[in-house]
Amino acid sequence: MGHLKAEIGVVGGGLAGYATAIAFALEGFDTVLLAPAPSREDGRSTALLGPSVAFLESLGVFEGLRAKAEALTVMRIIDDTGRLMRAPSISFDSREIDLAAFGFNALNADLMQALATRAATLGERLRVIDASVDDVAVEPDGALLRLGDGSSLSVALVVGADGRHSVVRERAKIACRAWSYPQSAIVLNFAHERPHGGISTEFHRTTGPFTQVPLPGRRSSLVWVETPETADLVVDLKPERLERMIEERLHSILGAVTLDGPVQAFPLKGASAARLTAPRVALVGEAAHVFPPIGAQGLNLGLRDAAAIVEAAVAGRDDPGCTMVLSRYEAARRGDVMSRSLGVDLLNRSLLASLLPTQAARAVGLSALAAIPWLRRFAMREGVAPGAGLKGIGRSVREGIGGEHAG
Ligand SMILES: Cc1cc2nc3c(=O)[nH]c(=O)nc-3n(C[C@H](O)[C@H](O)[C@H](O)COP(=O)(O)OP(=O)(O)OC[C@H]3O[C@@H](n4cnc5c(N)ncnc54)[C@H](O)[C@@H]3O)c2cc1C
What we know:
Elements: E1 3-5, E2 8-11, H1 15-26, E3 31-34, E4 45-49, H2 50-58, E5 70-72, E6 74-79, E7 90-93, E8 103-107, H3 108-119, E9 126-129, E10 133-139, E11 142-147, E12 152-155, E13 157-160, H4 167-171, E14 176-192, E15 199-205, E16 208-215, E17 219-226, H5 228-235, H6 239-249, E18 257-259, E19 264-273, E20 277-278, E21 281-283, E22 289-290, H7 298-315, H8 323-352, H9 356-371, H10 373-384, H11 388-398
Parallel strand pairs: 1-12, 2-3, 2-13, 3-9, 6-15, 13-21
Antiparallel strand pairs: 4-8, 5-8, 6-7, 10-11, 11-12, 14-17, 14-18, 14-19, 15-16, 16-17, 19-22, 20-21
Helix pairs in contact: 1-3, 1-7, 7-8, 9-10, 10-11
The structure holds flavin-adenine dinucleotide (FAD).
Flavin-adenine dinucleotide (FAD) is lined by residues 11-17, 34, 36, 38, 44, 46-47, 132-133, 161-163, 167, 185, 187, 223, 266, 285-286, 293, 296-300, 302.
């Protein structure tokens, strides 16, 4: 029991918290990461898009992960809803936007291992403490964190990376709107007979997406969205029965499948904090925004938060928790967080909606993406990095190929 001091206190040792703490320490900030041990094994994988990979490379984390990550070169969407207004199948190929890959898919457990290994090399600049935070009290020139082990920590800036039930957010009195979807995601990994060729295939079904994402070798991860009742039944199925169901829903594109590891269900929820900051406090990752796994955006957004708060703090080196730093961070992240949350929510709701006009709107949207190369390239660039789509359109126009939309 004692009192500690640091410049930065990052609360929460999930993927976003670890990445944020490492980034602060690498910029020379005296950083403490409060990281209680996780309550359950994480069997999920994350599709890390290009800018996230670049960020992890800059942190010296990606080299520890590379051998366990698979490049994503093609993302394919297939309408398997069986509805009247069906959307066309569409493939996004990274080579169309001059990228070798959209990014890499890796198991969260492997990413966590790479982050923890890197954190351990940073010595006194990053102290990782296995303790939860019970309370946060804001003072004019800093904040005081009360830890579950009875000790306390004074910092200039508190970063709340403590997930969807964030104590930091609550103590900072930042309002948060939360909602649930009538869906759960069944998450599992599997080995398969045929090679995946770096292709991720998302089948859009009436209950939600069924998405296979490649892992190294003949292995893939699966995010299968169903009603909560069906998800509970699926989790309890005998492996052989479940394997047959998966092969059937994949239309046997990968041949026979064999389960590899646990089968877990995650109830799907959304949440959006009214602000990303309060005096002496900044929120990153799911403490600030939660949305369904469609489009692989969640952690990618969390890593952009991490990069942005550190960049803002570097600009206010003398006091990383001052109003100027927090305003810069809020301004840098607000638009991206709002637009991604809205986009993912709309797409998910459009899959659920059985109303014909909604089906038509989605079918028309996907038809346009399938038929119009510049629009598809815009969507791909924008999907990988916010703002990149518009720059790409500018380039198409400059190169005189803007007229391609006629084809
Ligand atoms: C099924 C599924 C699939 C997904 N797939 C993708 C994908 O492909 N790509 C993608 O980008 N995103 C994906 N996501 C989203 C991604 O998993 C999340 O964005 C990410 O895991 C959230 O990380 P986080 O660090 O913000 O929060 P969390 O992982 O929730 O971490 C919060 C941490 O804070 C700790 N904590 C909580 N309270 C306290 C406290 N009081 N004191 C100290 N510590 C505390 C917890 O122990 C935990 O370790 C997916 C999500 C789901 C549900």
